[in-house]
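Lab notes, practical 5.
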Amino acid sequence: MSTKQVRIAALAECFPQRAFTSLAHHIDAQWLKTAYLMTRRDGAVGIDGQTADDFARDFEANIQRLLEAAKSGCYRAPPVRRVHIPKGDGRTTRPIGIPTFEDKVLQRAVVALLEPLYEYDFLDGSYGFRPGRSAHQAIETVRESLMSMGGGWVIDLDIQAFFDTIDHRHLREFLQQRVKDGVVLRLIGKWLKAGVLEAGQWQKGEVGSPQGGVISPLLANIYLHYVLDEWFEKDVKPRLRGRAFEVRFADDAVLAFSNEAEARKVLEVLPRRFARFGLTLHPAKTRLVRFQPHGGQRAETFDFLGFTHYWGKSRRGYWVIKQKTAKDRLKRALRHLSVWCRANRHQPLLIQHRHLCRKVKGHFAYYGITGNYEALKALVDQARRIWVKWLRRRSQRGGFSWDKANLLLKRLPLPKARIVHQRTLQRSW
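Output from the prediction step:
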């Protein structure tokens, strides 16, 4: 964190109720250069086709031009280029907005300006897209908190098309509680109104913040901080008799309660709370889960950030909360491997092996947590079968037998299942 960011963070702590009117003066040429270094150089290009190398060819002039345009108010935010990527079910897609490269640089500069200010405001239960916080910390907090409660009632929250339905009027009201700098607010307003370009057609940005924009995660956190986090902490929890907590990663959240009646009451209120701010809870995916290991009925499970949370017995016979790769995430990973192997089966074996090893290790880097060994092993076993399946279809002669496949897998083995994130499974009682 730079000296300027430290200063902003200190002021935010000293004046928790103040709306800051002078922030944009921190953005200078050096600030933009730092933002440029923090921007991915290999990302997809926007509507103008400009790459990071193109921007760097006349670097000093581009930085100065971008700075003057932002400060003078004449900067024009270009529309984002919309692409669709498949969701986990393989049938639906998620719209992603790709800004231009210089737009990414300027958005990164504004994020660096606002981040230290809002880091003081954001609550401990918020983990998504915040410095020093990760998805693994979020799922570990869920596990430890539920273990300390001995289980409970969990609201598995799903917001329908969240990034596409953010209400601009409410977002401006939330921003103005802490930011009243005209330059910053004007830039954010331009990004919100820039719209999207899809199949040659421009669509006006009346609601939403394109998922994929550099500033969108911060705006999403600000929006849900006021809509959910602060409301739950200040209005809901003081009225509860039992224990409760909330953990949120971007627009994925779980709310847990020790009391069933209180959980059902909050679940009843939540749709009205979200509707007040233009958001809709998914009627089928938002549900109440009885997450308790006792009693005649088997405890239900819930998914959060790609992991299924469930109760199981430890080696010593104690009840513990375990986490394994969610079925839809495992299917998605295997489907992506199959698509890649099919498209690249003509490549030399060494090249295929190198890429497959990277993909498998990348899967381990996220899903390799204590207690998830069997799911990791299942992925490796299926990856071997998928690779052999498409190698056998390299030729119509069918000369690649299973004996040859086994010899190949001995010579070019895929990585063994490995736990990357070690932790101790503490008993709940």
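Observations recorded by the TA: The radius of gyration is 24 Å. The mean pLDDT is 91.
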